[in-house]
Write a structure and sequence with these properties.
This protein has an eight-stranded mixed beta sheet with strand order 1-5-6-11-10-9-7-8, sandwiched between helices. It has a five-stranded mixed beta sheet with strand order 13-12-14-15-16, sandwiched between helices. Strands 2-4-3 form a three-stranded antiparallel beta sheet. It contains 15 helices and 16 strands. By secondary structure, the protein is an alpha+beta fold. The protein starts with about 25 loop residues before the first helix and ends with a helix. Helices cover about 35% and strands about 20% of the residues.
Length: about 450
């Protein structure tokens, strides 16, 4: 007799790490649709896919993204990769918090610029930041992004490239069915423009910085441009009164921005110039942008963003290679689509239905299991989605499973196997018919 007092305590269950989540089979179809649409749109614009490692040398992000950014100073998952041999050195590695720096690193490492061609590259994959988890923000999150980069002779520096990327994004959001998007647009100028603006910001911040949050006090000294990107509610009145970068742009930067806007006007892509928009990464130059939405994301309503980074390649030790890129927060995009679908269902009074398989095959007895699997194989090869039951199930159980999973049920008994005449029931109509095997696939598609 077992002594219950001596039973070992049950082991605690293990759950997903805070800030991460599982995407279950009822969720992934929408993700797959979004990604398939993005791939199709990018292909029409001449983009090819690039896949970079999920971890890189920490120095890549320190140099590329900027040591004073929140991403590098607070949010990266970094560790020391210990040397495995006396001849090796320990190396600091980081799970990628964004992908632009890695794509540019690959551009340099593989000498893509030596082709002389404009490189149009897109990626889809997970990123990692040690943020405070909240709705639409996770520590492992997914991005869909793209970069246009190349030597100056390829036209990579042209304002036309900026406008083309923005027009492509507008087309993608429209094709996905995202409604009420808004394009926020600005120019942060070139290095000389930013230097002049930083001087003006420091002077304006000096008498008021002590009234700001600790992070903004630090930024006011180390990188005042980052203050403009702050979301600290208590500091917004001070931030709104700071100088505007538009007043410090040189003639070249002004002309570049005017050409971007002119091309967008020609394409009919609406935009709003937001002089506060600087984005959160140090590598941005000239054009910066965000697409925001009014549905599903609350006050943190940015769906995607990006900008031009004409000096990033040189910052990483590469050749001069102007570029522009963006990243879409796929988690946030999915939330927006789900919120729109819920709003549409509420307005119509019709609840959304989950997609079903084409058919459920119910073998009538264990002896029919092999024939059921054979039939399923044949129907799947004809492009149909099929679930196979088990001959040990009672007929009521098979119908219960089938009604939840599929549009039709096929009853497969000994007679059906011998005659190749199948009994098919359609759940939406309740109709049950006999169907010859040679027209079965067409019947199920109808």
């Amino acid at each position: 007799m077992t002594d219950s007092k001596n039973k070992p305590a049950p082991r605690p269950t293990i759950k997903a790490v805070r800030g991460t989540r599982d995407l279950l089979p009822d969720q992934t179809p929408l993700w797959n649709r979004v990604e398939a649409t993005a791939r199709a749109v990018f292909s029409r614009y001449g983009f090819g896919e690039i896949r970079t490692p999920v971890f890189e040398a920490t120095e890549l992000f320190a140099r590329g993204v900027g040591e004073e950014t929140d991403i590098v100073s607070k949010e990266m998952f970094t560790w020391e990769d210990r040397a495995r041999a006396a001849s090796e050195k320990a190396q600091n590695l980081t799970l990628r918090p964004e992908s632009t720096a890695g794509v540019v690193r690959a551009y340099i490492e593989h000498k893509l610029g030596e082709t002389g061609q404009l490189q149009k590259l897109y990626y889809i994959g997970p990123q990692f930041r040690r943020e405070r988890p909240q709705r639409g923000r996770y520590r492992q999150f997914w991005q869909i992004g793209a970069e246009v980069i190349g030597p100056q002779t390829s036209g990579a520096e042209s304002p036309l490239r900026d406008a083309e990327v923005l027009e492509m994004l507008a087309s993608l959001l429209d094709e996905l069915g995202i409604r009420d998007w808004k394009l926020e647009l600005n120019s942060v100028g070139n290095a000389e423009d930013r230097a002049r603006f930083n001087v003006a910001l420091r002077e304006a911040l000096a008498p008021v910085k002590d009234r700001m949050c600790p992070d903004n006090q630090r930024r006011a000294e180390t990188n005042p441009l980052r203050v403009l990107d702050s979301k600290e509610e208590a500091d917004q009145e001070i931030i709104n009164a700071l100088p505007k970068i538009a007043d410090y742009l040189g003639d070249e930067s002004r002309e570049h921005f005017e050409q971007v806007k002119a091309a967008l006007d020609a394409c009919g892509v609406p935009y709003h110039v937001n002089p506060r928009l600087v984005r959160g990464l140090d590598y941005y130059t000239r054009t910066t942008f965000e697409f925001t939405v009014t549905t599903g994301l609350g006050t943190q309503n940015a769906l995607l963003g990006g900008g031009r980074y004409d000096g990033l390649s040189e910052m990483l030790g590469g050749p001069k290679a102007p570029g522009i890129g963006f990243a879409i927060g796929e988690d946030r995009l999915i939330l927006t689509l789900q919120a729109q679908a819920e709003a549409d269902a509420a307005a119509s009074g019709i609840a959304p239905t989950e997609p079903k398989l084409d058919v459920y095959i119910a073998p009538l007895g264990i002896a029919q299991n092999p024939a059921a699997l054979k039939l399923a194989r044949e129907l799947r090869r004809e492009g149909l989605s099929v679930e196979v039951g088990d001959g040990s199930f009672k007929i009521g159980k098979s119908f219960g499973f089938a009604d939840k999973l599929a549009r039709h049920i096929i009853l497969l008994g000994e007679d059906e196997v011998v005659t190749n005449v199948l009994t098919v029931k359609t759940f939406s109509t309740g109709e049950q018919v006999k169907v010859n095997r040679d027209v079965l696939a067409d019947t199920l598609r109808g």
